[in-house]
Amino acid sequence: MKPIIHTALGGLAAVLVLTGTAAANPSTADPSAKRAVPRLSTIDSAPLDLAARPGSEADRLARQLMAREVARARADGTDPLVLVGMARLNDVKELLFVQVQSPGECGSAGCSTVSFEYKDGRWIRIMDTVSGTVRVATSRHRGMPDLIVDGNRLVWDGREYKNLG
């Protein structure tokens, strides 16, 4: 009697596992089901994540774009900490945010955060700010979302971000 119960329970477990897998993955249950592409949504209260990402493509690019600042820090005898973050501004535009942290690059107001936009095959520096939390706002000016840096709203003037004042 025990082998029959064991076999029946094993079969039931297999059915439950397969049913659970099909329910968890709708594409296997229905091949015509389309997967939703995740989209980055930002709200005024969502801070940009600046973090050290050694060896990443963003880190390599940031070090290349900020080569002068990194070289200056090394000449002063420090190995600077390079923080990077990306923010999607619309379907095609992304900004690269870079903060180089070293005694020479940071002062009483904090460390400068720089942002770059990829345009016409090259990265263009479009904003320098002082330290502070960077947030991508839902409001827009000239097709680009406003940025909120340490509580100050910056708007796109068609060429660069400027403080509303």
What does this structure look like?
This protein has 165 residues and is of the alpha+beta class. The chain has 2 domains: 1-36; 57-163, no CATH class. The protein is built from 4 helices and 10 strands. The strands form 3 sheets. A 4-stranded antiparallel sheet has the order 1-2-5-6, with helices on one face. The protein has a 4-stranded antiparallel sheet with strand order 7-8-9-10, with no helix packed on it. The protein has a two-stranded antiparallel ribbon with strand order 3-4. The chain is globular and about 45 Å long. It starts with a helix and ends with a strand.
Describe the strand arrangement of the main beta sheet, using strand numbers.
1-2-5-6
The share of residues in extended strands comes to 25-35%
Largest sheet: 4 strands, antiparallel
In terms of structural class, how would the helical and strand content be classed? Answer: alpha+beta
SSE layout:
Blueprint: H1 2-24, H2 26-29, H3 57-65, H4 67-75, E1 81-88, E2 94-101, E3 106-107, E4 110-111, E5 113-119, E6 122-129, E7 134-141, E8 144-149, E9 152-156, E10 161-163
Antiparallel strand pairs: 1-2, 2-5, 3-4, 5-6, 7-8, 8-9, 9-10
Please give a quick description of this structure.
With 165 residues, the chain is an alpha+beta fold.
